[in-house]
Write a structure and sequence with these properties.
Layout lengths: L1 E6 L9 E3 L6 E7 L4 H17 L3 E7 L9 H12 L4 H10 L6 H10 L4 H8 L2 H16 L7 E4 L2 E3 L7 H14 L1
Parallel strand pairs: 3-4
Antiparallel strand pairs: 1-6, 2-4, 3-5, 5-6
């Protein structure tokens, strides 16, 4: 179910981390936290949705670390953004969600090594203001859009308020796709 009253205040652009064609008719934006157990469940569901919809879907991920509840969330987001600077955002994104039980600093360095990143650069980037600014921009954009928990999804610019655990996300995206193609 989409709430037409709640709009995404910062539209998806080519600056976002995105998978899928730029001109896909469906754009799914997720505000997520790498340490959030619900986001870990949503990760698998988003993968299924991407597989089901193929090139009809553009998936955008934005950081929304709930640092007070999840002590490793901010550093995990920093690791993903540092990997992005070496063109490995999605590989790190997947690594973090697939290893949610190990997000301490040592684990993040292990993941950087496994992804064959320049670890010295990765370490510098993780500590950089540039990375923090990117995460804060994602977070503030989410807050302006009414995000107050994770995961939060937007479908074509409007907040999804259904039960993503029960298949409603794919059903909603399919319904929106059918509506667009009419």
């Amino acid at each position: 179910m989409i709430n037409p009253q709640v709009k995404l205040r910062v539209p998806a652009t080519n600056v976002d981390h995105a998978q899928g064609p730029d001109d896909a008719p469906l754009v799914l934006v997720e505000y997520g936290d790498y340490e959030c157990a619900y986001c870990g469940q949503a990760y698998a569901i988003v993968k299924q949705v991407q597989e089901a919809l193929g090139d009809d879907l553009r998936f955008v991920f934005r950081n929304f670390p709930l640092a007070q509840a999840h002590p490793h969330a901010m550093n995990a987001a920093r690791a993903a953004e540092a990997a992005a600077l070496q063109r490995k955002f999605w590989e790190m994104h997947d690594m973090l969600y697939e290893n949610q039980d190990a997000l301490d600093d040592r684990a993040l360095l292990t993941y950087a090594n496994l992804l064959e990143l320049d670890v010295d650069r990765f370490t510098r980037d993780v500590a950089s203001q540039r990375i923090d600014d990117r995460i804060v921009a994602d977070f503030e954009g989410g807050a302006r859009s009414g995000v107050n928990g994770t995961p939060t999804f937007f479908v074509n610019g409007f907040r999804f308020e259904g039960n993503w655990l029960e298949g409603e996300l794919l059903e909603t995206l399919t319904a929106v796709s059918e509506e667009i193609s009419r």
